[in-house]
Write a structure and sequence with these properties.
This is Aminotransferase. Keywords: Aminotransferase, Pyridoxal phosphate, Transferase. One of its GO terms (molecular function) is transaminase activity. By secondary structure, the chain is an alpha/beta fold. The protein is built from 13 helices and 12 strands. It folds into 2 domains: 118 residues, Alpha-Beta Complex (Aspartate Aminotransferase, domain 1); 256 residues, Aspartate Aminotransferase, domain 2 (3-Layer(aba) Sandwich). The strands form 3 sheets. It has a 7-stranded mixed beta sheet with strand order 2-8-7-6-5-3-4, with helices on both faces. The termini are far apart. The model has no long low-confidence stretch (mean pLDDT 97).
Length: 399
């Protein structure tokens, strides 16, 4: 979204139904529904208890509105390039299916990934790399702090004339370290590779400007920072995919498929651009209205203001936790830590899972991932939530 000057957001806790005394700092695992999203689901369920009067166009209009909202969120004026997908793995499978069609693809080239990546961004490439004779290069996180600048440097160094595909997120799903997508996009274009982004742990909570990054594909699950329902996501597919092969031949993806009285006149032509990549039954009569409301709220709140809110919310906690021997990535702009998702490295003697369980017993929800606690606040969080986190960690992070 383009940056605009707006007032700082205040806490939106009253817009959610989280119980009093629950300290949910875990949006990176699953976002709670806002009251408005929850109501949209109830309304849709009531409406479809009686399908009388349902029109052919009703199978399409909800997804059309959602594609426009997602286009606004990622700053592109072409919603026809947005497809409805059920998961990140589905979107990555579309890329894998079409990698053989990439101009100049040849055996011996490489796919570049980052270390400790989410499995859906790794498993997708095993079969296709074997079929096409490609290799996979994994750029691992540095051992030393600060990690972000060096990790970004290593990634850029790994992208060369032998690169076919680069897969990278805006923010690492475990550590909260940012990747400079504009610099990466520039390097990828210089070598003629494809850039594919998993935006699941960033889009909706941090500004994302597709026009500046110029990726070939962006895939995003809807149930985390887009604040929507599970098993419903969105993906952008650029011009490289305009004549590609979809994973399935859904009837809704063909031209004039809203003309139900002519569906037996089989249509060989797909609707424009990314429409061929929509999952079957992409209408999602119950879930699509929920995602529509969630995206509308995010556009109103603005990801830049969500970053500012979470930065200010957590600012007083970090020095206290560092005094306990914990470490975190410094703020270093587009190559440092994000504010909505922060990996807190525990001392070597601490057991992350045991600490997560101790926090949960005190109604504080975060996630243990490898050697870090993943702390993921949002607009519904209050200073009391942060104080509860610090209080419990002071009791549990001890030798």
């Amino acid at each position: 979204m383009p940056a605009v000057e707006t007032a700082l957001l205040t806490c939106q806790n009253d817009q959610f139904s989280l119980p009093e005394g629950i300290h949910y700092l875990n949006c990176a695992t699953r976002a709670p529904f806002s009251k408005a999203v929850e109501q949209a689901g109830h309304t849709a369920l009531s409406q479809h208890a009686n399908p009388f009067g349902l029109r052919p166009d009703d199978f399409f209009t909800g997804a059309i509105r959602v594609r426009k909202l997602f286009s606004t969120l990622i700053n592109t004026n072409d919603p026809d390039r947005i497809a409805v997908v059920p998961s990140v793995s589905y979107g990555m499978a579309v890329v894998a299916r079409n990698l053989a069609l990439k101009p100049g693809i040849r055996a011996g080239q490489k796919i570049v990934l980052i270390g400790d990546e989410f499995p859906s961004d790794v498993y997708a490439w095993g079969r296709v790399s074997t079929e096409l004779g490609l290799t996979i290069t994994t750029v691992n996180m540095p051992d030393e702090f600060p990690k972000g600048p060096r990790w970004n440097e290593r990634l850029l160094d790994a992208i060369d004339a032998g690169t076919a595909l680069v897969v990278v997120p805006p923010v690492h799903w475990m550590y909260g370290i940012r990747f400079d997508l504009e610099a990466i996009g520039k390097r990828v274009r210089e070598v003629g590779a494809w850039l594919v982004i998993d935006g699941t742990q960033a889009i909706g909570a941090i500004p994302f400007d597709l026009t500046r990054i110029q990726p070939d594909a962006v895939v995003c699950a809807g149930y985390k920072w887009m604040m929507g329902p599970y098993s419903l996501g969105l993906a952008y597919f650029g011009p490289a995919f305009d004549e590609g092969t979809p994973l399935e031949e859904g009837w809704m993806n063909r031209l004039d498929s809203n003309q139900f009285h002519q569906l037996m006149d089989y249509q060989p032509i797909y609707r424009a651009k990314a429409y061929r990549y929509n999952v079957g039954e992409h209408t999602h009569f119950l879930q699509m209205p929920m995602l529509e409301v969630a995206l509308s709220q995010l556009i109103d709140w603005q990801p830049s203001r969500i970053q500012d809110y979470t930065e200010n919310l957590m600012a007083h906690a970090w020095p206290s936790l560092q005094e306990l021997g914990c470490r975190l990535e410094p703020e270093t702009g587009s190559i440092g830590r994000s504010h909505h998702l922060v990996g807190l490295w525990l001392p070597d003697y601490a057991d992350p899972m045991a600490i997560q369980l101790a926090l949960q017993k005190e109604n504080v929800s975060v996630s243990a991932r490898a050697r870090v606690l993943r702390i993921a606040p949002h607009l519904y969080n209050t200073p009391d939530d942060v104080d509860a986190l610090v209080r419990v960690l002071r009791k549990t992070v001890v030798e």
